[in-house]
Amino acid sequence: MVRTRAAISPTGFPHIGTIYQVLFDYAFAKKHQGRFIVRIEDTDQERTVAGAETKIFSALDWFGLSEDESIRKKGPYGPYRQSDRLPIYKKYAEELVGKGKAYYCFCTKQRLEELRNQLQKQKKVPMYDKYCRKLNSEEVKKRLQTGEKFVIRLKVPENITIKVRDELRGEISFDSDNVDDQVLLKSDGYPTYFLAVVVDDHLMKITHMVRGEEWLTSSPKIKLLYDHFQWDIPRLYHTPIIRNPDKSKFSKRQGHTNVDWYKKNGFLPEAILNYLALLGWSHPEGKELFTLTEFIALFDLKDLKPIGPIFDLPKLEWMNGQYIMKMQRSKIKDQILNYYKKYQDLRLPEDMVEKTVPLIQERIKKLADYLPLCEFFFQPPEKYEINLSSQKELFSKIVEKLQQISDWQAEELGGAMQSLASDLKVKNSEFFMALRVAVSGKKITPPLNESMEILGKTECLRRIELTIDKTANNC
RNA sequence: GGCGCGUUCGUCUAGUGGCCUAGGACGACAGGUUCUCAACCUGUAAAUCGCGGGUUCAAAUCCCGCACGCGUCACCA
């Protein structure tokens, strides 16, 4: 059975790059009727942030990428939080020492730092000098008994070639002399990432290890560990890393990496996933718009392209607009209502939102675009984007004409206004623009006649008369 | 700097030796439609397939070298 996992560090807000990873883990597991596991990697006590776990799970739920096993969903291979598995790592680290594949190291942080500085000065690669490898077992035993602080390091064989197979790139060779004697168990009793992933992935029966490309160069360490434990290594996939426009790792400085930002700006989770799916993967028929279900059916990890794509917000916005355009009206209404309530603490009147949806459906790209476009439906304009002071006469005639309309429908209105414009020999564009601004205050609005129909006769006349008053004052 | 990975329009990509004088999408631009904005329609510009060598009747596609970009070099993940 296929089992994939997302290894998430609770160190801050949910990152869009994490979702990108999770999408592939999730889709691949689902495609093969497998299980998708979320494991909390909180082995760095200093970086762990309280509350981050909750945020991660709520982000997963928002995207519809909920896991099958985790700290909140019981599974057969728990616990799923690494800080709850400390004895396990200790046991395996010691097993490695017993096998002669790892060793105790008593070097102080100061010594390591000096060593590093020294090597850097000599323009050499900063690596541990394997000092404690030379310690004999008697001495080690003695030092351990006195309670001296220690770490356990991986004993990397000298002068061999380590071959690792990455399913997207083929076989990659590393010279073991370039691989550091990695610390596996820290002096605080916590494992480092390397020990923890290998032990956990094995114990949790992970079949496909999907992780970011930033891990690629550490894969020989992983390979060595699997060999030393004599475990079967899962299939390895190093997925591309999303980039900034300048091709560096996608970061806060140059883009929006926080999932919350997308929520707050009214992006739809389906649209984001669809967009993300197209980064490094393409639909066999060249389709750009597809559902998660369709993606799951067609996706295969091996089709991923190992090139770091640049995150292009305009395309995401376009895609979001496409999703809104295709959504049922009642659903958009609910989404808008919900969105403003939740993220802007505004309770918009449901009936009015419902009426305006048909007018704005193809005009907004994000839920957050709704109010700037439709605010005038809820309150009369305070400011006017065009100076109407010379139009007093025009508006008087408009009022006169509007008052005669008995059937207040967009069509009637349009007809009446059209004929008035031609009677007065005013250009359509000018005429309607003046009226538009009088009613809404804005140059850009949904279709005028329809908008006026929704506002109603009384309100429209009120607003135009208000405009006349204001233009009169200006004179 | 060592090591590793990568390189097709501005961006996401199609492409696995002939169908490629390189296709699509976003974006840009121009025009049409139109009461504004969108939407929609039509069209234009945009990649000498990073560069240089091979192999082959034939290369974006295979091989080699170089350049550039990115990643990584912690008791962080």
UniProtKB/TrEMBL annotation:
PROSITE patterns: AA_TRNA_LIGASE_I. It is an enzyme of class 6 (ligase). InterPro entries: aa-tRNA-synth_I_cd-bd, aa-tRNA-synth_I_codon-bd_sub2, aa-tRNA-synth_I_CS, aa_tRNA-synth_I_cd-bd_sf, Glu-tRNA-ligase_bac/mito, Glu/Gln-tRNA-synth, Glu/Gln-tRNA-synth_Ib_cat-dom, GluQ/Sye. ATP binds at K252. GO terms for molecular function: ATP binding; glutamate-tRNA ligase activity; tRNA binding; zinc ion binding. Pfam families: Anticodon_2, tRNA-synt_1c. HAMAP family: Glu_tRNA_synth_type1. Monomer. Belongs to the class-I aminoacyl-tRNA synthetase family. Glutamate--tRNA ligase type 1 subfamily. This is Glutamate--tRNA ligase. It comes from Candidatus Roizmanbacteria bacterium RIFCSPLOWO2_01_FULL_41_22.
